[in-house]
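Lab notebook, bench 4. Still working through the backlog of constructs that have no structural model yet. Next entry is a single chain of 297 residues. Request: give me the structure tokens for it.
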Amino acid sequence: MQIHVARNSAQLGIFAPEEIQAGLQSGRFHATDLAWRDGMAAWTPLGDWPEFRLTGVPASPSSMPAEPMSVSTIPWEQGKSLGSFFATLKAAIVNPTTLSTGRFAFGDWVVFCYVGVLISLPFQLINVVAFGDKNAQVVEWLRSLNIPELSKAIAQMAQAEPAPAWATLFGALVGMAFTPLIYAFLALLHWVGQRIFRFQVSVERTVSAALLATAIMAVLMAPLQLLGFSFTVQMALGAVVLIPASVIYYRAFGAATGVSPWTQFGISCFVWFVLCCCCCFTPLMLFVGAFSRGLTH
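Model written out:
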């Protein structure tokens, strides 16, 4: 099994046990170098590994860390590549506890989110090219609901001209450019919610963790775009996968921030409740104010 080795908070690489054995004997590695492999709860000096104790190599005093070292085990933070992107996705879904060692610098994870959105983009383009404007499908779906109050809105939608393909494609590209930034802004609001409930998670870590979880959702939900032949099927399947997708999202988000997934879910509900109240209350107050002024004149 491959072993990660680090010295003074810097990754030295991933090596086979035989390479480390030879490196300890040649001086390439020190007994105080920290190492970790899948299944371990924490990084441990090589000198404390049973298989390396017989090397006869003394610990290097100069390599002793002044304080406990924390080295990221997240593939994306060890190197930027398409392989590390998918390895990080797998780790976040299968074993999200590995995210707890991450540094979560904003620059790393905004790039990660852009990669996720870019991977989902071809699915959106196939949807647009193959199935065209969705307005007619939405109209038919609304009509199937048989809600009299919607009849006027449905008639207006049916009369609307379909958007040209180039406009839809342009909108998809613009959306790709701004989506990570929009999610970063929403994560800032979530950070405010954390502070209200006295969770001391840094704003950078909160935003970066949200970008990680968002990229996971972008990749996992992208195949639903291939169901564009039927708006009803797309909506039904989207509703079915909503719960498992939310579980994956909040498990990853909770592990990355060190806060329980259920707690993070509750904070999200609180933040969105406040936003909905503000969005509804403010226009209502403006309307009441305008109405009141009209009565006084």
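Notes after review: The two ends are 82 Å apart (CA to CA). The beta strands are 3-7, 10-15, 34-36, 44-45. Flag for follow-up if needed.
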